[in-house]
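Internal tracking record. Fields below are filled automatically when a chain is submitted to the structure queue. Please do not edit lines marked as system-generated. If the sequence contains nonstandard residues, flag them in the REMARKS field before resubmitting.
Queue: standard
Priority: normal
Entity type: single polypeptide chain
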Amino acid sequence: MIILTNPSLPLAFYPLVIADVANRHQDVGLTVVPNNCDRFLVSKKSSQLSTQKISRHIQSLTIDISQEFRENFLDRMNLLGLRWIDVLRGHFLISASFHFIKKYVAELRSAVSISREMLFGSLMLAFEKSFDPNHSHYNYYQTIFDEDG
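SYSTEM-GENERATED OUTPUT FOLLOWS
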């Protein structure tokens, strides 16, 4: 089994996540994290996020993110045992994953074509097979389902 990882992703996502959380906390109502990561990629054929593009986007927003807010957020994340990727918006994450997988397959010189829909379907199947009471997020979602039930 090959596990695809990109160690720079958590750090690249941090400014987007913290700005998105601050946006929601302050009820500003801006679109901080779009459904698609394309605007933040180094280039159209890249799977790497551009820290400069992310920084420019964050600076263009009217969100006040104090050091105290950052520290409180980090403390809460640590207390709950969460990573940036755990709280990043799903559509954005799927988009970033799609670009990474396409780039990875191209580097293998494979002639595989995959659509976003096929990737999403495959991820949902994998999720269903691995999501059980032993999963780190199971209790959270069980609580959500119990409240809605």
